[in-house]
Amino acid sequence: MAPSTRTSTLTAAVPTQADGRMSLRAKWALGGVIGGGALAGLLATGSSALALYFARRVITPVRQRTADQEVLAVLREGGGRQVILTATPETTVEGVYGLFFDGGKGHARIGRIVSYSPADGTVLREVEAVYAGDLDTARRGWWSGALYPDPAAAGFAAEDVQIDVDGGTAPAWLVRAGGPARTWAVMVHGRGATRQEALRAVGPALELGLTSLLVSYRNDGLAPSAEDGRYGLGSTEWHDVEAAIEFALANGAEEIVLFGWSMGGAICLQTADLSPHRHLIRAMVLDAPVINWVNVLAHHAQINRIPSLVGRYGQLMLGHPVGRRLTGLAAPVDLKAMDWVARAVEVRTPTLIIHSVDDEYVPYEPSALLGERNPDMVTFETFNHARHTKEWNVDPERWENLIKAWLRPQLAPRLNPGQNR
Q1: What are the residue ranges in the chain where pLDDT is below 70?
Q2: How many whole angstroms from its chain centre is CA 181?
Q3: Can you spell out the DSSP letters for 121-180?
Q4: Could you say which residues form the signal peptide (predicted)?
Q5: Long-range contacts: 272-280, Cβ < 8 Å, 24+?
Q6: Phi and psi (nearest 5°) for 288?
Q7: Could you tell me how many helices (H) and strands (E) the chain has, helices first?
Q8: Which residue in 55, 123, 228, 372 has a CA-CA distance of 20 to 30 Å to 44?
Q9: Cβ(74)–Cβ(62) under 8 Å?
Q10: CB 331 within 8 A of CB 324
């Protein structure tokens, strides 16, 4: 009875139209009060702490990666080295990868699988290079798709530049094309990663004649932190990419191609939608992008054994003004505005999406649905066994060829109005 009585009292207190019907403004006001009351009720339950923990975890940057990969031994083999690792779903996939150790101070490039012993739970792999640290003394680290520590290690001549953003300047790597380049590639890494992640795309970009700008953005450990110290999941970070576009335009660029990985893909989609320069964004290449945050958050609630209702409460906290105060966000995050499956027809920039079907972090289904719902603008290509954002690592030749074959016609000179096709 109490909820009904409270609603009746509230209804009686709000303005009505001449015919007795509630005005539109009143309906919105009443909805806000009821919504706030529902959330307040939630906070009184035992599930609130878990929901709040889940919401905060999503938007809080992690300053130190978890060293969840065990390094068992390093062997000398002729003039080279091999490393014995605990077998995991990542270390048992062929390809070439980065291994960070010693709290991130050490970095090695790990190559092919020499042998794999399921019974012992170990895998022996080649060590292609050690860029920093003493791998012989390493005991734990983390697996990464980032092979190289910097452009020089990847064989690229680069300039260190600073981009003016809110709160200061954000460092970026600038890799110039061999000749004058009217189109620049602005490359945006994912959540918890750095601009190292984007080095994999510089080679094909150079082959296409693109100058590459590998950016940092708020809360990634290089760029200035946001005032609230929280991720906006793309809703705020796109402003830093917009600043990178302005830098490119001020330094000779006439058009832009956006590259984005994981949350960087969500950031690129926001940029292409909201940027004042969106008409200059010629194309987007997105690797394992977040197309629908609700889907990703539900997936992570499931794999972390968080009840689905609690996971939904966590999502409500991210988007509700009351929840905003609890999570520490400066403003609510509008997850619906970043649902590009629902907004598929609004994608107006030609987009290539590359996504592995076994992605354990960002499910591929929303990427596939976006391609199905807007095939005129979105091309979707699948990989297998690459997990999250490691498609290049598994098959670099195919990854690069896909991008070059798709981008070449996108970059072809545009026809003038009335010109014969």
Answers
A1: 1-46, 415-421
A2: 27
A3: TEEEEEEEEEEES-GGG--EEEEES---SSTTTTT---EEEEEEETTEEEEEEEE--SS-
A4: none
A5: 272/347, 272/348, 272/349, 273/346, 274/238, 275/238, 275/241, 275/242, 275/245, 276/242, 277/242, 277/245, 277/246, 277/249, 278/348, 278/349, 280/245, 280/249, 280/254, 280/255, 280/256
A6: 50, 50
A7: 12, 14
A8: 228
A9: no
A10: yes
Structure tokens at 85: 């690792």
Residue 165: Cβ-neighbour burial (10 angstroms; 0-12, 13-18, 19+):
buried
Read off the pLDDT of residues 368-415 as tens digits, 9 standing for 90 and up. Answer: 999 999 999 999 999 999 999 999 999 999 999 999 999 999 999 876
Q: What is the pLDDT of residue 419?
A: 45
Euclidean distance between CA atoms 350 and 379, whole angstroms: 8
**Pair of tokens at residue 168:** 């200061």
Torsional class of 361: left (φ above 0), alpha (ψ -120 to 50), beta (otherwise): alpha
Cα torsion angle, 385, 391, 394, 397, sign? positive
Whole-prediction pTM:
0.87
Q: Could you write out the DSSP letters of every residue in 3-43?
A: HHHHHHHHHHHS-B-TTSPBPHHHHHHHHHHHHHHHHHHHH
Longest alpha-carbon distance in the chain: 91
CATH 3.30.450.20 fits 159-292+339-410, yes or no: no
* Assigned CATH for 69-144: 2.40.30
Token pair for residue 163?
């981009």
Within a 10 A sphere around the Cβ of 21, how many other Cβ atoms? Answer: 10
Residue position matching structure tokens 């009335």: 418
State which amino acid sits at residue 212.
S
In three-state secondary structure terms, 120 is coil
Which value, in Å, is the radius of gyration of the alpha carbons in the chain?
24
Rounded Cα distance between 145 and 388, Å, is 9
Would you say how long the chain is, in residues?
421
What are 354's two structure tokens? Answer: 């590359």
Q: Tokens 């207190």 label which residue?
A: 13
Beta strands in 314-410 (DSSP E): 351-356, 378-383
Residue 62 DSSP code: P
